[in-house]
Amino acid sequence: MSLRRRLLLTLGASLCVLWLAAAGWLLIDLQRSVRDTLDQRLVSSARMVAGLLGNVPRSAWRQAIGPALASPPTPNVACQIRSMRGKVLLRTRGDLGTQLGQAPPGFSEIERNGQRWRLYTDVAHGLMITVADRLDERRRLQLGIVLAAALPFVLALIGSLVVVWWSIRRGLAPLERLRAELASRDPATLTPIVVADAPAELRPAIATLNRLLARTDDALAREQRFTSNAAHELRTPLTAIKTHVQLASRLEGRRAKAALADAEAGIARLHHTLEQLLLLTRIEETGAAGGESARVRDTAAAALADLANLANLAEAGRVCTPLTMPDTWIAAPLALAAGAIRNLLENAIRHSPPGASIELAIERERRGVVFIVRDRGDWPADADPETLIPRFSRRSAEHDGSGLGLAIVAAVAERFGGRLVLAAREGGGLFARLYLPAADNDERVAASREM
Amino acid sequence: MHVLLVEDDALVGSGIQSALEVEAFAVDRVATVAEAEAAMAALTTDLVVLDIGLPDGDGLALLRDWRAAGRRVPVLLLTARDAVVDRVTGLSAGGDDYLLKPFDLDELLARVKALLRRAAGFAAPVLTHGTIAFDPAGREVWRDGVAIDLTRRETALLERLLYAGASVVTNDQLKDSLYGFDAEIEGNALSVHIHNLRRKLGRDVVETVRGVGYRLGPERTDTPR
Fold first, then answer.
1. CB distance from B35 to chain A under 8 Å?
2. What angle is formed at CA A37 by the lines to CA A34 and CA A42, rounded to 5 degrees?
3. What is the chain B residue with the closest CA to A224?
């Protein structure tokens, strides 16, 4: 049920119940008051007649032979005066016959000729004075009063309902506009929602929604960029392979062999890019600090072995490995940490002049371990090396990397609470510092040793 | 015919270049927008194979510049991105055809030839001029239905003149089409090839436009004596 309908029903129903209850109560009260007032008048009339008759000498009544009509008949009221013995001395309406004569003292009701009468009989000065009025006349009076009192109620009730309906409609208009805006949107649209004159209550919700939309838009764009870049990185070596293989089939001898060798170089590159992409996926899948830890010594060894395995990087021997390593554990899975360090070394080798040595150092820091790679490569001294980090960013077209190496290192650092810092070295080259936090158990061991 | 290949990836570039050269195209390969601009200014190319993603800029922006400058050379776009939007923007930027990586070498060559043919206004795959017919795919030449044996350069020369139709082709344009930008050519190499062509196909197959270059001779329907 819509909010508007619910509000309308709740407010409308409560208004109706309250107004009708008040009206009912008023009606009952009015009826009682009218009856009491009219009864009071009957009593007053009887007493007034009794007062008048009190001045008439008793002997006068004895001379009265029969009922004498004292006045012309009145349509709605009647009066009768009897002696205590029951003899009717005076009466106004003969058509009521002896009916009034049998009335006991006090209030009573009779029916005569299809009409109901209300009687009051007073006893005074040895006489019984009975006055009567017609009940249907009373009812007509009551009805008139009730109608006069009820009409404003009904009008006010209708007016209130209209006001409630209008206010709810107006009050909920921004919500309705928001609904219409949302309903008319293409699900793929991620532009901000605009609602004119949004009330203060709705503004935070719309702002949150818009922030969410912006974030989604951003993430989607990043995803699309990544997919597009990944497609490019995979298709380019694939194109090289396909072209050279098809070329080899058109050539003969030495040139065919050269084409096949080029195809193989393409395969090596495709393999490398695939591995890097898989590594990136694995980093994203691994839960943050999932409790896995790796020994520093094993990590460095795995990274160097990995480096030596790469066909196009037979120069792994150029890396100067540290003589001493801290005997500690880092809070990251071995494969990912080793992959990150291998990428740093690979980058250094790729950008260094042939034969130049690469330096790997590992140092213990207060809460973790720092892996340092120094090279004398052709990194641009004036450019900010941090711009090399984002995915698919490359120094130049001549370097056949996947453009993912440093992005992977940064992703590993971020995932496991570490940090990657790149800086240009004086005299050329790059200085890369990968900090990874130490594993918790290692902290405890270290602490116990220090004591 | 001369092809300017703009491809940043060395491995892909060398593959395409070799394939085109096997098909007797003269190919110059450049890897960046700057190099492509320089090459375009320095030589007359018959067709451009343009990779959209270049390291120092956008290949499409380069293409738009060329079109804005009035260059009408046919352009075959290459890309590794397959979004439909990319394809549409590529073609609306002035590209004549679009090939998605990885492609078949056969398809690339067929499209290159089709683009050249279309640019010259030939509808049929075999180019004819009077009694002379040339099949760019098989690189065969006939006169009166008899196959004529031409060398690679002579065929390329005839091809270039056929594509030009009635217009004059300058010496420089012919050299670019035959040898590309970097090749060192001996001074009279071109006239030697022209001489041989006339000897094999008839004297007036090629007309000399003095001080400018050459063009095809008048269309003949009978065999020259």
1. no
2. 125
3. B83
| Cβ A437 vs Cβ A338: under 8 Å | no
Q: Encode B26-45: b = buried (16+ Cβ within 10 Å), e = exposed.
A: bbbbbbbbebbbebbeebbb
| Domain final position from B92, B120, B148 | B120
CB atoms within 10 A of CB A254: 8
Same domain as B100, residue B49: yes
Distance (Å, whole) CA B23 – CA B19: 7
In a domain, B222, yes or no: no
Inter-chain residue contact A242 with B81, CB threshold 8 Å: no
ipTM of the complex: 0.75
Q: Which domain holds residue B36?
A: 2-120
- Dig out the tokens for B63 from the structure: 């293409």
pTM greater than the 0.80 cutoff: no
What span, in angstroms and rounded, lies between the C-alpha atoms of A55 and A42?
21
Q: How many domains does chain B have?
A: 2
Put simply, the answer to whether A243 touches B102 (Cβ < 8 Å) is: yes
In a domain, B138, yes or no: yes
Q: Which of B69, B94, B120 is the last residue of a domain?
A: B120
Residues B191 and B95 grouped into a single domain: no
Strands A88-91 and A68-69: parallel
Could you report the per-residue pLDDT of A399-445, keeping only the tens digit for each?
Answer: 556 677 888 888 888 888 888 888 888 777 888 889 988 887 655 45
Instruction: Tell whether B210 is covered by a domain.
Output: yes
